[in-house]
Amino acid sequence: MKHLFFTIAALLVVSCSTNKTSQTATVGEWYTGNLKGKSFKLGSQENIELVKKVAAAYNAMDAEKLITYFSEDAKIYVHSGEELQVSLALYESYFASVDSLLWVPHGMSTQTLEDDSIAVVSIPSSDTRYFKEQQTQSSFLFERFWIVEGKITTIVQYKREFPKNYDQIEL
Q1: Taking the model in full, what pTM does it have?
Q2: What is the tally of structural domains in the chain?
Q3: What is the pLDDT of residues 5-47, one digit of tens each?
Q4: Under DSSP, is residue 22 helix (H, G, I), strand (E, B) or coil?
């Protein structure tokens, strides 16, 4: 009787074991360039938190804080196609041209390459810049923040003007 009891108990323990082979589901793949054929998986919330810190420093126009979130050779590919090298001077000059600005993310999602080498945070947002010449620029942006080892290495930006019926659009 004891043997039967121990056999049943052992079978229950083995069948309830959580030592499953874990396969991470992919959520996309890359089709061109040096990442061609690589798959993405869901990324870490840490990537989202990093971009939230960037947003706070950007909206506060704190150039010194902002550049701490970037790698030394980080680049921004702005919507016009221009490539900018991230630096303290770049952000100081930009912030000196505006009275204030407001970048409001509508949401953020993150993916990571299967080998965890690169994370990407994708963000649709509204961006309003109040220039010193009394000019205001508002637009929708879609940006991808590329992150390596906890630092932003690249931002790629796409822009769309606000539609005339902006107040009627549900976001």
Answers
A1: 0.79
A2: 1
A3: 444 444 444 445 444 434 568 888 889 988 898 889 999 999 9
A4: coil
Domain interval for residue 56: 24-162
Reference 116, options 42, 28, 52, 51; nearest CA is 42
In the chain, what is the straight-line distance between the N-terminal and C-terminal CA atoms, in Å?
66
Q: How many CB atoms lie within 10 A of CB 93?
A: 11
Other CB atoms within 10 A of residue 34 CB: 6
DSSP 163: P
CATH number at residue 51: 3.10.450.50
pLDDT (tens digit per residue) in 83-125: 999 999 999 999 999 999 999 999 999 999 999 999 999 999 9
Asked whether residue 121 is domain-assigned, the answer is yes
* φ/ψ of residue 53, rounded to 5: -65, -40
* Residue 84 covered by a domain: yes
